[in-house]
Every structure is written in C-alpha cells, then in structure tokens.
Write a structure and sequence with these properties.
Elements lengths: L1 H4 L2 E7 L5 E8 L4 E4 L1 H4 L11 E4 L2 E7 L3 H4 L6 E4 L21 E6 L11 E9 L11 E3 L11 E3 L5 E10 L7 E7 H4 L8 E3 L28
Length: 228
C-alpha cells in the first residue's frame, strides 16, 4: 500500500451546483500525472472551480495550459505535470489489454464511511474489453464499481502495472441492474503522456502572454513545459 500511497493523489474541486467533489490521479513517472478528464473539466469544457491536487501533504492549485480545441477531448483522460516529483519513477504502465477474467485492482480515494485509511484498493476481475470506439464500448469493464471518488484512479494488474484509468460506471441489464466499473485503456492515454494539459499555478510560465497579440482567449493559458 505504501508504495502506491505516494504516487496516487486525491483531487478535489467544486461542481456546478457548488457542492464539493473528489476524484483520483496517479503519477506515471517524470512528473506526468494522469486522471479522468471529467475530474478536471465540466460538460462545457471549462476547468472546474477550486481544482486542487494533494501531493505529499500539500495542496496544489491547477490551471490549464492547453487551447480549448484540445481540451474538448472525447476520451475521458487528462494529464497534469508536477515538477516537484519529476525525479520519481511513478507507477509503471503496460500498453496491453487485459484478458477477460483477469484479476485487477483499482486504487483511489472513493468516499467510504467509517474507514481510517483514505486510499482504497478495489479488487475484482475484468468482465469485458473494448469492442469499438462508441461511447460505452471503448472501456475495460470490471466487476466492481468505479465512481464516487475512484474516477481517475489507476487500474493495475497483479504485477502492479497500470492498464487503465478508472472512468465511471455502466449499469448492465441484470435484475436489478448491476453497475460495473469502466476504465479507459492506458494505451488510449499514451498520446497524452508527452503533452501535459495542466500544471500547478506556481509553475505556469508567465511568458505565455507573449504568444498572443494582446490578451489570450478565455480559458486558454499557454505555457512552455514547466521544466524547460
């Protein structure tokens, strides 16, 4: 548990109805952190208010550094960059799809009453694999629920490699309907790994203003990589 607790982080924000919300993010090495897109952006593509990442006992406020047309992604993945942990190895990834019936676990920060440890392992099996790129058919389906703060957490195999990013739930046609967790395959997120989309506020390069003739468009903060 300890080796994951330092690389899996709690995300907090405020929803449109002003209620607090939480999710999970995880570090894959080099300062790159992955989470679910819906933890970061609302349905209009705007960054959620009061977005903060808790890392090593401190809170980081996050801001976007990607243009709006790149923020509006159809895949439920977003990346963050944190220079403070760039020298850490993070959790290893493996670009493969698991097998149906394979044992997997999700790690994150779901809301669970009367539990001392804030980080949780959900263990179960793979129930179904992506079949095509349609909305509900691009996910790895698992036997446990995937929402309630677990969104953005890592789905790992028995060797500890990340196979996916927890995204939410889908209810199947059982009686009563049974919710299954869904995870975006890590290979879908691979293109994000080298294009960070958010950084902590204090790491935003102030020279982004030079990109534009005048003020940047609303919702757009351009920056060089924080370590450049």
């Amino acid at each position: 548990m300890d080796k994951y607790s330092t690389e899996v982080f709690l995300l907090t924000c405020t929803l449109e109805d002003s209620s607090p919300a939480r999710g999970t993010a995880f570090h894959v090495g080099g300062g790159t952190i992955i989470t679910a897109r819906h933890n970061i952006y609302d349905r209009h593509g705007s960054v959620r208010p009061n977005l903060r990442l808790q890392v090593d006992g401190s809170e980081k406020e996050l801001v976007p550094i990607r243009p709006e047309d790149q923020i509006r992604q159809t895949i439920d993945v977003a990346t963050l960059y944190l220079k403070d942990i760039a020298d850490r190895r993070g959790i290893p990834t493996q670009l493969r799809l698991p097998q149906v019936g394979e044992e997997v676990a999700a790690i994150g920060y779901p809301r669970l009453p009367q539990r001392n440890s804030p980080i949780v392992f959900h263990v179960g099996t793979v129930e179904a694999l992506p079949t095509n790129d349609k909305q509900n058919e691009r996910f790895i389906q698992v036997s446990f629920q995937g929402g309630g703060g677990l969104s953005g957490g890592c789905l790992i195999d028995k060797s500890g490699h990340v196979l996916g990013i927890m995204s939410g739930n889908i209810c199947m046609g059982d009686h009563p309907p049974r919710p299954y967790g869904q995870a975006v395959p890590i290979e879908y997120a691979d293109s994000f790994m080298h294009g960070e989309s958010l950084v902590p506020t204090e790491e935003v390069d102030p020279s982004y203003h030079e990109v534009f003739d005048g003020e940047p468009p609303a919702g757009y903060i351009e920056s060089n990589r924080a370590d450049s």
